[in-house]
Prior knowledge:
With 71 residues, the chain is mainly α. The chain is built from 3 helices and no strands. It has 2 domains: 1-33, no CATH class; 35-64, no CATH class.
Amino acid sequence: MLTANPVMHSKTKHFALDVHYVRDLVHKQQLCICHIPARYQVADVFTKALSGSSFLPFRDKLRVSALQPPP
Length: 71
């Protein structure tokens, strides 16, 4: 986790300030970082190819309905 690892890599430079801010809040115990299991990561529907069993619950959470064929 970047908030717990003090080593910053070149691939993380573009959000280094945000990570330092969050790391500082974690260090001050003003923010608690916890793991969120993949089955609760709603943003995955926008960023990953999901199986039907993973996609359908996310689609429902986003209130998107299946395309209905015309009558």
